[in-house]
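Table S4 entry, DUF397 domain-containing protein.
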Amino acid sequence: MTKNFHGWRKSRHSEPNGGCVEAGRAVDGTIGVRDTKLDRSPVLEFSPAEWTRFLNRIRHEA
């Protein structure tokens, strides 16, 4: 069953053409990430700890 994510936020690094990556949150704290260029984008799911590690990694690699 697919979780219901809410509060989708667009990445500040997204292109101005409307295609972007968005992140939302489920009631259990799971973070979902989707690509709005796709009509039915799959949602990647991260636990809060995984999301924190992911963000820290990309911030320090950039």
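The chain has a mean pLDDT of 88.
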